[in-house]
Amino acid sequence: MLEADNTWAYPPVSYYFEVSVDTMTGVDCLFSEVSGIEVDLGTGVEVKEGGNNSYTHKLPGRVNYADLELKRGLVPKTSPLFTWCESSLSGNFTNPIETKTVIVKLLNNEGDTLVSWNFSKAYPIKMTVSSFNASASGDSAIVIETIKLSYSEFERNYT
């Protein structure tokens, strides 16, 4: 439960989240894992000061965003998300790559949004299917599809 100053009375859990990709719903937005919510400020140019050999000045460079990875159970080819990925990754570039907004929401125990991340201008750059193993059991027996997305930037919002 949120307190008045937007702090939590408990640490939020990482397993209760929701993903949406533009207007896609249903099976397309059921993911078992999300990773890559990461930003860093690179160091750009190092400047050596004349007469001072004890250090160099490291100037800030560009902001770098990690790729967003979404993992889920394998879905049928009729999935709009699969169709979007296939179209983007087909490699023929006869059609421009269509970007979408991806929103990841961290939820509390009542299903209310605690924090959301909006990833703008996202597009698929890689799709992977997990290995097949005849002796697999438990969670490793499920075929997992990983979709890797590149995006321009993300914004974190507290509600």
**Total number of strands:** 9
How many helix segments?
1
End-to-end separation: 12 Å
Overall tally of domains: 1
> Averaging pLDDT over every residue, what do you get?
86
Low-confidence stretches: none
Write down the overall geometry: globular
CATH architecture: Roll
Largest sheet: 7 strands, antiparallel
β-sheet strand percentage: over 45%
SSE order, as H and E?
A: EEEEEHEEEE
CATH class call: Mainly Beta
Rg over C-alpha atoms, rounded to the nearest angstrom: 20 Å
Structural class: mainly beta
Report helical residue fraction: under 10%
What can you tell me about this protein's structure?
The chain has one helix at residues 80-89; strands at residues 17-21, 33-35, 39-48, 56-65, 68-73, 100-107, 113-129, 144-150, 153-158. With 159 residues, it is mostly beta strands. The chain has one domain (17-41, 57-158): Hcp1-like (Pnp Oxidase, Chain A, Roll). Strands 1, 2, 5, 6, 7, 8 and 9 form a seven-stranded antiparallel beta sheet that branches. A two-stranded antiparallel ribbon has the order 3-4. The model has no long low-confidence stretch (mean pLDDT 86).
